[in-house]
Each structure stands twice: as C-alpha cells, then as structure tokens.
Amino acid sequence: MDHEIGQAVDVGLSDDRAARIRADVAIVEELAHYGFEGPTYEVFQDSLLRETEPILKGMLRDGSLGRLAIARFNERGIEFWIHPEDWAALRADAAARDEILIDMQVSALKTFRVNALVNERWNPDHTGPRGAGCLRTYFVGTCIWEFRRAYLKWARARVRWAELHKLSDFGEETPGGTGGILGLLQAPGYLAEPEAIVLTNNFEDILAEQTSQTQAVVGMTIHGFVDTEIADTLKITHGAVRSCKTRFRKALYQAARERRIWIPAQLHTKANHDKQQAGAA
C-alpha cells in the first residue's frame, strides 16, 4: 500500500526521491526553528499543496486513492465502501473531485503538521521495503486517511441533493398531481402551463433560511405529498400548510429579485402577469 503511494508520488514529481528526502531534512530543520508556523511555514505549506494536488487529483480520477483508503480502513476493522455511482461520478466529474480534494487537504494539513512535523513521525531514515518517503509521500498518505470522512460528507450531500431534486425538472406527475417546486408554484394563483423552472444551488440556501415548519412543508411538497397529507403528518392545520407555501413562494420571489435564483415569467402569479399585460396595453 505504501509502495503504491510512493510510486504515485515518484511518477508525479520529476526529481530523484533520495534528493527530495535530503532536501526535506533541511526544510524540516528550518521549519522547526520557527515552530512550524508563521510566513516560512505558510510558504512550505503552499508548495506542499501545489506539488501534491495533481497527484491527488489523478488518484481520485483513476480510483487508486479510493481503493487505498478502503483497504486501509478495512484492515483496521472500519467498514468503508464506495457506491458504484460515486465511483463513476469521481471518474467523470472534475467538480466532485475538487470538492473532495479541498476537504481532504484542509484536514490533512492540520494532521500532517502535528503528526509528521511536531511529533516527528516523518522518518527520513525509515528502512522499510521502499526505504524512506519524502514529505509529499507522507502528506498524500495523510490525505488518504482523510478521504473516508471527506467522501462520506460529499456522498451524503449528494444524496440529499438528489432527494431534494429527484422529481424530474421539479414537475414530475405524482399520484397527487404535479409534484416538486413546480407543483408548489402552480398552487392556486399560478399559471397552469409553465416551462421548466430554472434554479441554482441557492435554492437549498433559501430553504434553509425558513422556519423548520416551512422547511418540512416544502420538503414534503417536493416529494409529492398533497396539503391534506402534509397537515396530517405534521399535525398542523391546512391553513398553516398554505401559509408556509405562501411564505416560501414570497421568499423565492424575493430571491429572484436579488438575482439569487431565476424563475421564468410563466411561473409568475396571475395577478402580476395580468398587471404587466394591463400596463403594456
């Protein structure tokens, strides 16, 4: 396992491994003089990130980082696996890789400083099968330990987003009628034949700003529940359900005015639509 990490680093860096280790010994001595902090350490840290980033990105893309992480945790009796759809996403989606990479790096930097440097666990005289590894190899190994946490965080957010938006273009037909946000905006007072609503990720931010009751009502609406079912489940009145929807619609339109979200004209209220037509006449 360590052999595979070292090999990935050797391929990613052009200079000789022995030369890197000699240089790292001198670097650590200098950093120790400043207590592994301050401007000198920040320069080193930036260099460490810059040199290891393409290596880590490549390992995320080809799946080797995930495989190594799974092996490490399973060896220690910690269950860890990656869903096939997530494997595919990490291969195909650069944004997904970047999200996990940044999360890994931020945590790994803290662990690396304490373990490798302050506690002197990096050993330039290591005598394993491949000999000693350079600081970049140690950091990549630290990132692999951080991958499980970063992946699970990303995967949970991905599932939550998929659940929130699982109704196709927010308007799939459900037993109770049109579901999703399209159904929410097509409540009485809205046009009957809108085009697909176009939202950005800011939708979740807008929803998070609402009361817990409104969040619950909107969440159930997104999943296709009708007002009576929502009221019965949440043990609130039908009027309270309608009020929550009204408040959220107002919040959406306020967000649209602030350009945080875009709602096509076809989804505007009939009153506003009629007013615009009257003004045009």
Explain what the structure shows:
Helices cover 68% and strands 1% of the residues. The protein has helices at 2-12, 17-33, 38-62, 64-75, 84-92, 94-118, 135-164, 180-185, 202-208, 212-222, 227-234, 238-257, 270-280, and strands spanning 173-174, 177-178. A hairpin with a 2-residue loop joins strand 1 (173-174) and strand 2. The chain is elongated. With 281 residues, it is mainly α. Mean pLDDT is 78; it is low at 165-180, 186-201 and 266-281.
Looking at this protein, list some descriptive labels.
281 residues, mainly alpha, Arc Repressor Mutant, subunit A, 2 domains, two-stranded antiparallel sheet, elongated, disordered C terminus
What is the domain tally? 2
Shape: elongated
Residue fraction in strands: under 5%
The proportion of residues forming helix, as a percent range, comes to: 55-70%
Distance between the termini: 74 Å
**Helix-strand makeup class:** mainly alpha
Number of helices, where a helix is a run of at least 4 consecutive DSSP H or I residues: 13
Q: pLDDT under 50 segments (min length 5)? A: 165-180, 186-201, 266-281
Question: What series of H and E elements makes up the topology?
Answer: HHHHHHHEEHHHHHH
Radius of gyration: 26 Å
Largest sheet geometry = 2 strands, antiparallel
What is the overall pLDDT average? 78
SS elements, strand count = 2
**What strand line-up does the widest sheet have?**
1-2
